[in-house]
Specification:
The chain is α/β, with parallel strands linked by helices and 361 residues long. It is 35% helix and 25% strand. A hairpin with a 2-residue loop joins β5 and β6.
């Protein structure tokens, strides 16, 4: 049991198979894109035979491994900032033109789930866990940058409309920006199936007893997607406003989604999440005439926690406010693409300079 948030171990599954299997055999999905733009992955099996010699006898063992993969049906500004986690921080660029720093002061979440464990021990275990997570997150971030992926971590409480918003977003971006989705839920592939129905490639992570995604899960899921470049990567986290705040996945931004069917004081009740977020989407605004929700008060509370929060009001049902959200996504994707091209150009210039030095000798 994880002392940080109480998650159980050994129950994480990616597209139905244990995460340990992906540690041994990454990238076994074979995706291809149809002419209509939809993606499709194949079920395939690997069979191999081992021969072992024991004294004067030989034994042959055949091991067949079958991997079932889902089928996809049809379906500006830039800023660099550093996130501080514990005693270390890591910078990353998001392509938006002001510099700022976020310091996520992580409370000892394990103290809630492990009351009999001494506080010092809880903090020690938590620090070790988060440092290991952050190391993998840095690797994820580097891989995203190398591929020009604009990766977003969508976080919210259950029922905020994340998946509906994501479906609407994908349908609107279909011809503009390549995209892929990593879905996180404790159980079922329901949300991944909804995404696949749009024609988008999606991988489902089931966390079992876990209440959040972590960087290792994302690292293991990424090779299960097509190897896209200059694309959007949406990571839909488990519905929870507590633990996902503490776990960096390597994303460019955490995007918090708050629906008008929730309380306007959610930012004050769950400050760590809104402090960790760069963007707040207030969703389901089409329901405002039917609920008691003060939009401006919610925004004020959120900006009390995170003054630089970018706020957009949207309705995934009616499409209201979606243009601003889509424009923000396109700017971010373009910035990630340009950063990748700039890195390539800088590398080429460095190689050319080294070659010139060698020729001058």
């Amino acid at each position: 049991m994880c002392s940080t948030c109480g998650c159980g171990h050994g129950e994480v599954r990616i597209d139905g198979s244990p995460i340990e299997a992906h540690d041994k055999d990454q990238g076994s999905s074979h995706w291809h894109q149809h002419e209509d733009g939809t993606w499709h992955s194949h079920t395939h099996a690997h069979e191999h035979t081992h021969t072992h010699a024991h004294g004067s006898e030989q034994h042959s063992h055949s091991h067949a491994h079958t991997h079932d993969h889902p089928h996809a049906h049809e379906g500006a500004h830039s800023h660099d900032h550093a996130h501080g986690h514990g005693d270390h921080e890591h910078p990353h660029s998001h392509g938006f033109s002001h510099d700022h720093a976020h310091s996520h002061d992580r409370a000892p979440l394990g103290a809630v789930h492990a009351p009999d464990v001494p506080t010092a021990r809880v903090i020690e275990i938590e620090r070790d866990l988060l440092e290991r997570n952050d190391a993998i997150a840095r690797q994820n971030r580097r891989q995203f940058a190398d591929r020009g992926l604009f990766a977003l971590n969508l976080v919210s409480s259950p029922g905020s409309g994340k998946t509906t918003l994501l479906v609407r977003t994908i349908e609107a971006l279909r011809s503009d920006v390549p995209y892929a989705v990593i879905e996180g839920d404790q159980q079922t592939e329901n949300d991944a199936d909804r995404i696949r129905e749009t024609g988008a490639p999606a991988v489902q992570i089931n966390t079992g007893k876990g209440c959040h995604l972590d960087a290792r899960m994302v690292a293991q899921a990424l090779p299960r997607l097509p190897k896209l470049e200059d694309a959007l990567l949406f990571i839909e986290n488990v519905g929870n406003l507590v633990c996902p705040a503490a776990f960096d996945l390597g994303e460019a931004h955490k995007v918090a989604i708050l629906s008008v069917t929730e309380g306007a004081d959610k930012p004050l009740k769950y400050p760590d999440m809104f402090h960790a977020a760069d963007v707040l989407l207030i969703n389901k605004i089409d329901l405002l005439p039917h609920v008691d929700f003060d939009v401006e008060q919610a925004i004020a509370y959120a900006r009390r926690i995170q003054p630089k929060l970018v706020v957009m009001k949207v309705s995934a049902t009616t499409g209201e406010g979606m243009d601003a959200w889509l424009a923000w996504l396109k700017r971010g994707a373009e910035a990630a693409r340009n950063a990748r091209l700039n890195d390539i150009q800088a590398l080429r210039q460095k190689i050319a300079a080294l070659e010139a030095q060698l020729q001058a000798r």
